[in-house]
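This part of the workshop introduces the protein records we will be handling. Each record describes a single protein and holds just a pair of labelled lines. Instead of coordinates, the fold is spelled out as a row of discrete tokens. To make this concrete, we reproduce a full record directly below:
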Amino acid sequence: MNNNQIIRVVSPSLLGGETKNQDRAVFDKKSNTACVCDGTTSSPYSALAASLVAGYAPLILNNVDNLKVIAQLLYALRNKSLLDDVAVSPAIPESIRSLVRDAAKQGLKTSFQTTLVAMSFMVQDSCIQTKFVSCGDSGIFAFSSAGEVFMTNLSENQTQGDDCPLNTITFCPGSELLVKSEGPLNTFPQIMAQINLQNPDKWLLCQTICSTKNNSPDAQITTGMRLSPKESLLVPKYLFYGFKDPGFREYGRLYYSRFIRRLAKPKMACSDIHFDVKGNVTAVLPDHFSTGNWNYFEDRFPIDTHFLLCSDGFYRAFADPGAMWNWLTTNRSGLSKKASRLHLLNDLHHKLHRTCGDDDISFIWINPGRNNDAL
């Protein structure tokens, strides 16, 4: 496998006078699973929480219901820490030791907090089948080979079809759609002129017939479409699974993908994103699991798609995903070598320190359509 196709980086903060080492980035070769966890700075034992969750990422993506078990484990560890005695330094005067213990116990009530972004993938003949789970402000990005952002969990709106009538067909991860192919998009010049899609020879114009199954998991699905019967769809050819019977060749099945677009809304739903505003609060495990502030989604991507999982300490060093992509591709060779990688990361830490404050930096960059190995 090629050492340049998966790059994994974890770099604790260097500047600002605050010691931090709370990011964890793990790639599991057996399950093709990547995970980045960013422990919450104000949370005791957050580094341990990040390590635990990252280590259990293959179990979570194998069955997303296991995320509930992981959250319960973090709660159990928190409760145990509250029961344990708090060690107080002998240098602290006896008169205020009880106050120090009480303050430490109060802090432990928010212990074992971490964000989570994880993905698993399976390379197929024509596409990459993926699963994702996320909680908090760490980022997942899918880029085309030219740097176009296909998907990110940081986008506020990734659903389509809000203006459909009530007799709609729900099409989301876990469901399957029966469609009729009207033909290649490049045989419809008027439609091509209206929507201006790149590479029209790689697209089909299809008509919605019905949903054939819906096995969506009991999780927070952030992507989906609500379609009208007989609605026209734009479908990448690699996603169309036709029937073998010659009499039904124009009919096919579609598994959900955000690359399938309504003709009425041909543009990608991923909105413009900028990283120049840093929020003070983010969702974390385990506290925000029960409130539903986490996401699970599946998709199929083109075979040459690049995936990036990263903590906010990495992406906030850039103005937007385009600048981040340019930095990655420009420095790909340097990131593969220890000495130059340290120099590149040192520059990022100083940039963060000047803008929003230095932070732990971690990311995993994967191009699974080619043979891989992790650095």
